[in-house]
Amino acid sequence: MNYRDLFSGIAFLIIGASTVWMGKDFFADAAYVPIGAGALMGAFSLPLIWRGVKSILAARAMTASTGAHRTEPHSVPALVDHPARFATTLGCCLVYYAALPIVGFYTTSALFISLLAVLLGERRPAVVAGITLGFITLLYALFAVVLKRPLPVEFFLAS
Known about the structure:
Elements: H1 4-23, H2 32-66, H3 83-103, H4 105-119, H5 125-146
Helix pairs in contact: 1-2, 3-4, 4-5
């Protein structure tokens, strides 16, 4: 049986609920992002939990219908399908976290998206540039225009 979907869904539900719970103490206009992101994460975790429960119940029904338990060893599915990609993504996230206060939000985000896309295998420069510019534009629109929240100043603008 594969419990990965069930455990991932429960983890996302807990993280989403925790984010909503922590975000409720923010000021009214600053609370929208954590509450919204946490609520979406919790909502999107429910189908994952449902799929995990269905697969576990189907596997148990299949075992029960045969009337016998397996005696031969079976392989346990890996927790991560692509460990190298997972490690690459985790490493890029840690570098992003460390560089953000020093370099600045927009520059670090643009470098993070571009570098991660290339490291994960995207080789078309137009696609990488388009995704990066689109994402940075959406971030700017959300934080600077809609929420009117200051972000860490870029290193080349600080004096």
